[in-house]
Amino acid sequence: ARDYSKMKTIVSTSLISFLVLSILLGVTGFCFSSSMMGLLQTPADILEEAVLYLRVYFVGFPFLFMYNILSTMFTSIGESKIPLCLLIFSSVLNIMMDLWMVAGLGLGVFGAALATLIAQGISAVFSFLIFLYRIRQYKSPARWFDGRELIAVPSVLQQSTVSIGMMIVQAVVNPFGTQALAGYAATMRVENVFSLIFVSIGNAVSPYVSQNLGAKKIGRI
Predict the structure, then answer these.
(1) What's the whole-model pTM score?
(2) In this predicted model, what pLDDT tens digit does every residue of 94-116 receive, in sequence order?
């Protein structure tokens, strides 16, 4: 639709609101990590390491949120290659740092969590700088924040419902011990590989339809 002013306002509003939300969730999660693991009936022999990993994960929440929303924004402006390259970079860096921190330095679970945090952080910063450079090419005035553009609430509630359901299942599995927990985790990885195909198709179709609708190219949809 070439309404660049509105696009820049939505981008700015999304980044600010999700950054604030991620910091609030990160602080809350960090403070209540132990309680959450207790509610999920995490086996006692891995409880301490699980809490440590979760706390490091919550510290990295702002980077995780920033990377995910910027990946969506890149796709929305027709730049799907940039988030792909950043994802490959982040994944390779994460693997290398995992090997160094876990196998080399012997930091164990903390090393694995720290490697993920650093890889996501660097990738998020690169994403932000590249996107900022791209968005500045649109010479249009825009507002920093517009509460009327916060239209993602239904999607947030949908994703939250799925996550809460998975947590309930996790709480049922955990009391069976670490072997059952490891089996469940491995099975979920396999399931994710297959479900990723359909999720990716949905993620690709959504901006494609939106772009063509905005451009009034209904035939392409």
Answers:
(1) 0.71
(2) 899 888 888 878 778 888 888 88
